[in-house]
Design a protein that fits this description.
It is built from 3 helices and 21 strands. The chain is mainly beta. The C terminus is likely disordered.
């Protein structure tokens, strides 16, 4: 990341929501909605050579090696609703190089359902979550059902997918009340039954998932300590109003392939009250301040998490919403005489995109982590504090 080439991408017309994934140093996939019909496409690019093996240089336009439209006829009722793609890059996985794209659609039991669904604000027959899978580097895709949400809730960008080093595929989604996880061990063809990750008396939306070493899977979401529909101001309170339910970034971690999880909050309040998941259909002022920009990654070298999210605290207005981040910091290494790492609990340092952001650090309990020295952590915290003070002076 010290130096960058900037290359315009060819083959991408007017579009919305470009998602990016890499497979090795040269292959990059861009998935996007082509406007005006929001048709889903996936383009593949070679970022190392430009025809005839000529190396890529700064400013050179890159045309796709191939472009594929996700087909409506391949899965009845398929819509343009898809989220971030992921690529299995693990040398230990028998599904290495497979591309996975999470998608959703209204379930279709008969032809008339297509008309019924098109004229409904939800999915009368239920919302079907599926995964599009390519095993030929994005030239063709097959579609497999993952889970059926019988409530028929239709969220904007509701699902995410990830893989671990063993090739397991993890799929998360939400029904505006709770967050669920499904797992596949055969390359996305068959899936476990959905498992609810948040507590019985809580609400959870916008899950984002990441995979690490074999069996390691982490899921983050926006969580509130009140059960119910996140879109309801009667349940959650009016958006950005004192006394309404606070939302935080939650993190769940599993090291056994999703069988057991340890869960905790990793930020302070990032929003109050109703949290709308209907995109441009959100009507209440400040209910969609958090948008749907949310991501989680696991460091391949330290195993630590970093999460980016959106927050609107402290004033709660859309104009002052910002992107924040929180990164896990491990405890000191304790030698046992055999070079082992003794620390098992991590903590997260949080930073907002502007002064006055709520966040702070929280002590880790139940989340395995290894890594940094306390001295390095203290230096980093000092630099962060200095930066925030300087930024505060600047904005004044």
């Amino acid at each position: 990341g010290k130096t960058w080439n900037v290359n315009p991408l060819g083959g991408v017309p007017a579009q919305d929501r470009p998602w990016l994934a890499a497979d090795g140093p040269c292959t990059v996939y861009v998935a996007y909605h082509q406007l005006p019909a929001f048709s889903p496409f996936v383009n593949a690019y070679d970022t190392c050579t430009v025809g005839n093996g000529v190396p890529v240089s700064n400013g050179v336009a890159l045309d796709p090696t191939h472009s594929t439209q996700l087909s409506l006829s391949s899965f009845p009722g398929l819509s343009g609703s898809f989220n971030k793609l992921t690529v299995d890059t693990s040398p230990k996985s028998k599904h290495r190089h497979a591309i996975y794209i999470p998608m959703s659609l209204c379930q279709v039991a008969s032809a008339p359902d297509l008309v019924i669904n098109a004229n409904s604000s939800g999915c009368p027959k239920g919302t079907q979550y599926i995964v599009a899978v390519s095993t030929d580097r994005g030239q063709t895709f097959t579609y497999h059902p993952v889970a059926l949400d019988k409530s028929g809730a239709t969220l904007v960008w509701a699902a995410t997918v990830a893989t671990d080093a063993a090739g397991r595929v993890y799929y998360t989604w939400s029904d505006s009340h709770n967050v669920y996880l499904d797992v596949s061990t055969d390359g996305g063809v068959h899936w476990t039954k959905p498992r609810q990750l948040n507590g019985a008396k809580t609400a959870a939306v916008y899950p984002t998932v990441a995979g690490g070493s074999a069996g390691r899977v982490d899921v983050a979401w926006y969580g509130a300590d009140r059960k119910g529909d996140s879109n309801s101001s009667k349940i959650m309170g009016q958006p950005s109003v004192k006394g309404s339910v606070p939302w935080k970034v939650m993190l769940a971690r599993s090291t056994d392939g999703g069988k057991h999880f340890a869960t905790r909050a990793v930020t302070g309040p990032i929003h109050l009250g109703e949290l709308c998941t209907h995109g441009s259909g959100c009507a209440d002022t400040n209910s969609r301040n958090l948008l749907d920009d949310f991501g989680l990654v696991i460091s391949p070298t330290t195993g630590h998490d970093s999460i980016t999210y959106t927050a609107d605290r402290p004033d709660g207005t859309a104009g002052h919403a910002f992107t924040g981040f929180v990164s896990e910091v491990g405890p000191a290494k304790r030698s046992s005489g055999h070079g082992s790492t003794g620390g098992t609990h991590g903590r997260h340092h949080s930073s907002g995109g502007r002064s006055g952001a709520s966040g702070g650090s929280s002590s880790g309990r139940g989340l395995a982590a290894t890594g940094l020295s306390p001295a390095i952590a203290l230096v980093g915290l000092g630099l962060l504090t200095t930066g925030l003070l300087l930024r505060r002076r600047t904005v004044r």
